[in-house]
Amino acid sequence: MNTINEARCLVAGEWLTSGEHADRVGPYLREVVSRARTTPPGDVDAALAYARQAAGRVARLAPATRAGVLERAAAAVTAQGDRLAGLLALELGKPLKDGRGEIVRVADTLSVAAAEARMIGGEVLPVAGWGRGVGNTAITQRAPAGPVLAITPFNAPANLLAHKLAASFAAGNTTIVKPPPQAPAVSTALVELMLEAGMPVEAVQVLHGGGELGARLCAAPEIAVVSFTGSVTAGHAVAHAAGPKRVMLELGGNAATIVCEDADIAEAASACARTGYSNSGQSCISVQRVYVHHSRFEEFAQELTARVKGLVVGDPLDPATDVGSMVDDDAAERVVRWTAEAAGQGARVTAGGTRDGAVMAPTVVVAPPAEARVVREEVFGALVAVLPYNDFDAVIEACNRSAYGLQAGLFTHDVRRVITAWRELEVGGLVVNGSSNFRLDHVPFGGVKDSGIGRESPRWMIEDFTVTKTLMLKGLTIWGDR
User: Could you tell me the pTM of the whole model?
Assistant: First the structure.
């Protein structure tokens, strides 16, 4: 029996352990791996009041102070990388190699947020360029927006918490964190490390609970900004509950990658095999639909299938494992069911299609019809669908039929196709000579259509977590013309 990792609530500056708890059963180990102290209504009220009261104290911290905390936190996360990756493996079935990669990104994200904290400022506006502005001066600054609510998902709970919390703190805000019920221990551990690095206790609170807690926090008048990552359905509920607040939503995806006839097929297949099944495909930009030019279609399908069959599936705590378990049995069963549906509609299943508990065998579905759910909907699992195309303009249209628009991939050496795809694809980002599943944490990330509102990464999130304040100096000018 593994040690049960306790996930405490942090409310009004105090870590709380007493009260009701919710157990997290690891999807691979099939036993309790963590226990979260759930948040009763009275503690929610206390947390909201404290966030409002603490906002001014956090806002008065110098940017250099905030940056120093984030830099020390990055170093602490690096030192604790193996422990944090182990928690990801226990709570989510995420392989150690994926978990270690996520923790490297956490440290990068904290470091980037520190650098961005040092750059927050404003500008002198050119008011004297218009007649009524002559003789006056106007200056802007970026000011903290107020208490932030950060609702994080299970698939990348550490790094996406780092993005939200670090950017909010860099901007001078206090933050209430609602971690995913599937990953309470790793989320709490990251907050603990940031406090140990010097983040003031006024700057963060942690409340564990489900959708009812999230809805109450979203609707609370004390909250100024809501940052949510999760499903489209939950995102719509968040937006409805939040009302007129500032809301950032990073939602689902149905990522397409296009492989042109001039592509290196072995390279493309290797990239799609590597990035289509990391974290068991539970990523909003995971490779789901691969459109391959008909002249290279069978070659690619065979190459991808061979590489997928070579992936190591099993114990997420084994460093050699490529594919661990999905978040729970129901998620894996849904992928099995959708695979069988596609096969019944005429598709070929060349790998996988089965599960053992929550472990989904990496699955390749070749030539499913356009109406199959593995093509139309977000699979969010260990499955890649391979489809042929004949005309480049037509495949762009096929990609755009999705209700989602987060990120896409393109394998080609033709710059004209690159520019065309960049212009025409209805997505927030395009990766050239790489699959859809690639992200740099200091580059803007977000989608269009049902994939959400706003852009993540510290610089762009700081813009959302701050407001522009203008100082107008009448009769005082720096322009030399009264």
Answer: 0.96
